[in-house]
Amino acid sequence: xxxxxxxxxxxxxxxxxxxxxxxxxxxxxxxxxxxxxxxxxxxxxxxxxxxxxxxxxxxxxxxxxxxxxxxxxxxxxxxxxxxxxxxxxxxxxxxxxxxxxxxxxxxxxxxxxxxxxxxxxxxxxxxxxxxxxxxxxxxxxxxxxxxxxxxxxxxxxxxxxxxxxxxxxxxxxxxxxxxxxxxxxxxxxxxxxxxxxxxxxxxxxxxxxxxxxxxxxxxxxxxxxxxxxxxxxxxxxxxxxxxxxxxxxxxxxxxxxxxxxxxxxxxxxxxxxxxxxxxxxxxxxxxxxxxxxxxxxxxxxxxxxxxxxxxxxxxxxxxxxxxxxxxxxxxxxxxxxxxxxxxxxxxxxxxxxxxxxxxxxxxxxxxxxxxxxxxxxxxxxxxxxxxxxxxxxxxxxxxxxx
Amino acid sequence: xxxxxxxxxxxxxxxxxxxxxxxxxxxxxxxxxxxxxxxxxxxxxxxxxxxxxxxxxxxxxxxxxxxxxxxxxxxxxxxxxxxxxxxxxxxxxxxxxxxxxxxxxxxxxxxxxxxxxxxxxxxxxxxxxxxxxxxxxxxxxxxxxxxxxxxxxxxxxxxxx
Amino acid sequence: xxxxxxxxxxxxxxxxxxxxxxxxxxxxxxxxxxxxxxxxxxxxxxxxxxxxxxxxxxxxxxxxxxxxxxxxxxxxxxxxxxxxxxxxxxxxxxxxxxxxxxxxxxxxxxxxxxxxxxxxxxxxxxxxxxxxxxxxxxxxxxxxxxxxxxxxxxxxxxxxxxxxxxxxxxxxxxxxxxxxxxxxxxxxxxxxxxxxxxxxxxxxxxxxxxxxxxxxxxxxxxxxxxxxxxxxxxxxxxxxxxxxxxxxxxxxxxxxxxxxxxxxxxxxxxxxxxxxxxxxxxxxxxxxxxxxxxxxxxxxxxxxxxxxxxxxxxxxxxxxxxxxxxxxxxxxxxxxxxxx
Lengths: 402, 161, 340
What we know:
heterotrimer, A: about 400 residues, 3-stranded antiparallel sheet, 8 strands, C: about 350 residues, mainly alpha, globular
């Protein structure tokens, strides 16, 4: 039995133990528990090295980088159009939303203004990506607390959204539908249609209206199954409280920040998509605990559905694509564009030295900053709460490592 | 909008549990949404990016698709061929002929850039998806196989007016 | 007629295995199918032709082909022994469960006492598995199981005391007969006696018993020793192949056993009103297994609706709510028994 090998005791622990007023026979050294990178609740390949005293976590050190794919470097040897196909793989549960800030950054550098209809389509699909992303959270979070059924219920409804995204863009997860100056004007159909400009497929708008009704219904179902469940409340209320000032210090963004009561949503503050035309509210939490983070996301689904309903009714006619030269050369310059991703603030700092290829792309992803609070918030928590808190921060490892 | 009004109300501690049980019981007696895949198949939407079909007659070996592909999974070889003049005394023309057109679907990331940049309508998306293989080398589809996919290319759907 | 001792023993073993193994397989299949439909899925469909009824068998066959791994850090003897201890504890429970007036392997006078003693044996096996695996997750899982045992054995025992007071016997056959002889009111129509008396009169005890047996079986909402999302699989983490199958079967056989005990104590066991005692020897097993199926459905239903509690919340639930409630139940039952 080498469960608690004395040779491996951390020197700090040894010091701590010598101070502790326990008899030498009963001393209980801390155990180092390696959680991940292959662990069911680390969302992929996050690794946590935890020093635990029984079930209590004394100290946690997150180890990231297992999924580093080098997007920033890849973007330096690919054209802007090719990079769009790459960036929607950063946070794969909301692929479409990842494309927006990058495309807008290139548009700002080139001075191309996309037409209104393209803006509306972008907005509708972004909100759909937000619903899809939040429904993944709605499904995976109860699973981390042990309830398996909300998983299938939420994923079943997410399928409606993904089907709509697929019917327009051709891809469920990786739409690659944005182009500099609008949205993709053609897709490979029959040869005769390829020349004429493409649009939304027939029935999309009505299908969206129907789907949004169903999405509203599933949020109520989830309220019934999860939010109102006393066991879920026992596990989440008051667990993992992040005060507002602490959240700001660690650079949290998105629903995690809003659950702490900070009214900060880039949809209201940055004008890269026409959100100003719509009436919607920013749900805010008051306590900043796991329960608030859950409820805020559930409410955001409803608000997104509201936005989509208004956008579908008010979508203007017109072209999908502004006039763009066949070979896109971006003038010298640099810009930083950020947008409200489902996970939080996502930004691209694009530097161009002229030509078809960016000189440098720096990606600011929400999950990376959201994860940075883990060592602080997990200190002194129980192992079950560790899982609950980690899940409530809703990070995707692709978004952390890039 | 502050969500304080949605704070838990634990006055009747079993109510939430009962409502959850009611929902799962209701779902137990509703029709499942999944299908028995090999027996029943869901039809993908016409625009779905399933597999790329090639029309070799239209291809002029311009290499645009191979160049624009972000992960360089298209392999093209061709040669120039002399075509006899169409009428007596005419000029001898040269025509590019395709020797090899392979797409490695093990590498392909289904971005659709090749279909988009093709200036001669030689590449098409088909929603067909049933081409998994036991051996990764079989994922390299050659010209004949790509041409076969042409049969599965659907008519483009009508547009929203 | 006195049967040969060895022949009788063989018959009893056959009876127990014949009920337990198919029972466990049926419940595994039921769990696969019910959970699927609760989640809008279809569940197993192909194995065995219609409705995928052979899926548990196919799973078992698959497990048998897996390598029987013993980790280098493991305490090999204890590690290998643990699944059998779990299985033995569960099997031993079946010995005293009456399937009919005469269909019982051993009618012990102290049946309830024996039952509560052997039902904790399987937790010992779990602790052995957790401790010997040489894995930190297994260790935490095993210790959680031990803590859970201490917290939940008490309400389980105390809930049964109420029944024992009412029936005036500790023999399971005696308890079933006591329920069969119960008459609600002399004036009421005869059909009202269909209602199992202890389900109503010992309702609090029944609720406590079911809650405690959920914890005893490590089922959600009390599956902290396994806790897939926290401890990967708890004490099962290192097990594979046949030994894992033993744990798996043991879990579901435990469900059959616990349901059978609860059905015997609170739902009248094999007893069916208006049926003669001779017929009950044939009908009894069917009646009991129907009740077992109903209870198992409830367990499955809970499993696929609820999340898991935290270990400290489980302890506070047990010590602050269930044990006091069970004690109050005993006091009330005893008082009424003496007065009426």
